[in-house]
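Thread: quick sanity check before group meeting

JM: Hey all, I'm pulling together slides for Thursday and realized we never actually wrote out the predicted structure for the chain we discussed last week. Dropping the sequence here so it's in one place. If anyone has concerns about the input, flag it before I start.
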Amino acid sequence: MGGGGHRQQLGSGESGTCAKYTWEEVQKHNHRGDQWLVIERKVYNVSEWTKRHPGGRRVLGHYAGEDATDAFTAFHPDQRFVRKFLKPLLLGELAPSEPSQDHGKNAALMEDFRTLRQNLEAQGLFRTSPLFFILYLGHILLLEGLSLALLWTFGNGWINTIVICLTLAVSQAQAGWLQHDFGHLSVFKSSTWDHLLHKFVIGHLKGASANWWNHRHFQHHAKPNVVTKDPDINMLKILVLGNVLPVEYGIKKLKHMPYNYQHQYFFLVGPPLLIPLYFNMHILQTMVMQRDWVDFAWYLSYYTRFLTCYVPYYGVIGSLVLLIVVRFLESHWFVWVTQMNHIPMDIDYEKHDDWLTMQLKATCNIEHSSFNDWFSGHLNFQIEHHLFPTMPRHSYSHAAPQVRELCEKYGITYQVKGLWESWCDIVRSLKKSGDMWLDAYLHK
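JM (edit): ok, ran it. Output follows.
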């Protein structure tokens, strides 16, 4: 079962014979350094490719030993280009007696979901409106310019500084949603342009790292709310989420924090600190450790621009304080929007669900309105975004009714909430998980 032997079989496969595998054989190769996966019944050895994969090593590992067809389709808009990299990794294919789906998944549901995707593509919902993104980027740059115009015109008084902080916070939050679009390759036909604009927006406009974001965020999309696979639910032992982890912690008598009060201290350690403290430290650490000097240069360009613009008015210390306040405001916005769709949902270990079921368990939508769409960067359509991450966001509202119809056909819950209700559910969920931890800690 060595890699060289399989490459030999692949060569002979091209002349008429092809190695055949059972799911049992494929599923044995699900360990670091030995990872196979299946795409459209073809079996690939990705053990070495994980080191070069643009989405990061771990996202491939999350599908080791599994069928990755729907994930592959979801993440790669230009599949003809990507398949060039798959050819050298091909081992063979599933035996004719083996089903296309693994772990007893519903074949009819999976087929209907793939048909839905084809229908949405035929309707043009994966085609971008250039004007939408031009105007979106324009309003971000306008806000950046407005903050400087206010400073030049009215000076650095307290009232004007507060207005500038609010203006920059709005600009930063909206730039965060825009970099998300470029990061998902949902804007340009050529992924090269998406990658370039992604580095510009997240690096030069926000002072962060595109590669750091990619490697973290794609894991979240690949296995949302799956314990040990989704980094977004790794709360560094500060919070315990869902119904499973709290009980595990309680039984093991783990008390890193008083988790029964996490719905209260969340307001102190979550929204205010995620971006200013944790993300900033992790971004810098990742770039240095991985020697990602390209992203580091973009990162420095943001701070150079910011300090050049504001130091003449506030001094070095005052400019850094201004930046921290902006990050503080942006962090509140970011946390409440990004967590309202996920924390109250199902959080559990790997269940090997099909793509549709897995995403619907972990995500919910927030009511559609012009304000909600703008405020959340269209992440109020989290279901559609997770099912079709390369779909441009202005198409979500058109896809939603068709997704909902498919969910109703198979009895899958398609949940839509109000904005305030979704925020309250975050707190309710934290309290419920904390109570479960306390009960297990005291009585099990």
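AS: nice. The chain has two domains: 3-104, 105-444. The first strand starts at residue 19 and ends at 21.
JM: adding both to the slides.
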